[in-house]
UniProtKB/TrEMBL annotation:
SUPFAM superfamilies: ABC transporter involved in vitamin B12 uptake, BtuC
Location in the cell: Cell membrane
Entry GO MF terms: transmembrane transporter activity
Keyword Transmembrane assigned: yes
Keywords: Cell membrane, Membrane, Transmembrane, Transmembrane helix, Transport
This protein's record includes keyword Calcium: no
Protein family: Belongs to the binding-protein-dependent transport system permease family. FecCD subfamily.
One cellular-component annotation, GO: plasma membrane
The protein's name in its UniProt record: ABC transporter, permease protein
Membrane-protein topology: Multi-pass membrane protein
Transmembrane feature ranges: 47-67, 79-97, 103-122, 134-157, 177-195, 229-252, 294-311
Length: 320
């Protein structure tokens, strides 16, 4: 019953934010129901932008929740592991080389995210680091990839017009082709992760117990990592490296009562989409007619939630 209430609440909030995203913007307020009758330029742009925010938020959320479960670390996040910034660097390089278009950008994001993830894992493994050590390595590489992307954008402003804004996260430049490709990537990743949810749940018992149940732990982790990378690539291709959503959405689901991984995964998707929608609404209204990037706003929303979650978790540990 509690899980049903959680899911219903998250879907309700997500639906309200979707309607607000369709209605609010620099061009003024419009009745969302008017979209049924036909779409003009502003209305179509808002629909595409709203759809992009949903895909970005859901992609980061399901990726974050799955990586946290697979690596058994609740602080894991695509951004903190360097995946998002690695994908962003690859996209900037592809644009610099003239490899634009949905296929080129999507492939570059996937390849960059994969390379970054493998580099982080290899470095941590060579150093014998696990748990928080993995996060430290990921954060270090995330700063490195982010810095390299910024240097590229500043060095080639003519070829990378608008990219300086994009590297802080934005759906302002949404492209229909990239949106369709990203939505397909999210759908495939989510289907795989949902199909693997029971096996991932078994990891909560420990690796040995999971192996005793006939689960190939390494193969499972490789599959989850691949699906998560596809989801992150979809997000980066659309909006650049957006931080905090992949970390925050699963924590909100846990705070609201989701305990089993299946429930966390199901609740995280609308939570992440809602966070992205709220961030984008604020991005285009707070400084209108100018716009703000998504990551700083998502951070402002996510930091209080994470601090509260950390305090509650610490109190729970001390109470044992």
């Amino acid at each position: 019953m509690r899980t049903s209430i959680l899911l219903a609440s998250s879907i309700t909030v997500f639906s309200m934010l979707t309607l607000a995203s369709l209605a609010l913007g620099p061009a003024g307020v419009k009745n969302p129901l008017d979209y049924i009758d036909g779409l003009g330029g502003v209305e179509l742009y808002r629909l595409l932008r709203t759809s992009a925010s949903i895909v970005v938020g859901a992609s980061l959320a399901v990726s974050g929740a799955s990586l946290q479960q697979a690596l058994r670390n609740p602080l894991v996040d695509p951004y903190l592991l360097g995946i998002s910034t690695g994908a962003s660097l690859a996209v900037a390089l592809s644009l610099l080389l003239g490899l634009a278009g949905p296929l080129g950008i999507g492939s570059a994001a996937l390849a960059g995210g994969l390379a970054a993830f493998l580099l982080v894992l290899a470095t941590a493994r060579l150093a014998g680091m696990t748990g928080s050590g993995l996060i430290i390595v990921g954060v270090a590489y995330s700063y490195l990839f982010g810095s390299l992307t910024t240097l590229l954008v500043l060095s080639f402003p003519d070829k990378l017009t608008g990219a300086l804004y994009w590297i802080f996260g934005s759906v302002a430049y949404v492209d229909r082709g990239i949106l369709a490709t990203a939505a397909g990537g999210l759908a495939l990743a989510t289907l795989y992760l949902a199909a693997s949810s029971k096996a991932l749940e078994a990891l909560s018992l420990g690796e040995e117990a999971a192996r005793g149940l006939g689960i190939g732990v390494e193969r499972l982790r490789a599959g989850v990592a691949t699906a998560s990378l596809v989801a992150v690539a979809a997000s980066v291709a659309l909006a650049g490296p957006v931080g905090f959503i992949g970390l925050t959405a699963p924590w909100i689901a846990r705070l609201l009562g989701a305990a089993r991984f299946q429930h966390i995964l199901v609740a995280s998707a609308p939570m992440g989409a809602g966070l992205a929608l709220a961030s984008d609404i604020l991005a285009r209204t707070l400084a209108s007619p100018a716009e703000l990037p998504l990551t700083p706003i998502a951070s402002l929303i996510g930091v209080p939630i994470l601090v509260y979650a950390a305090v509650e978790r610490w109190r729970g540990v001390e109470a044992l």
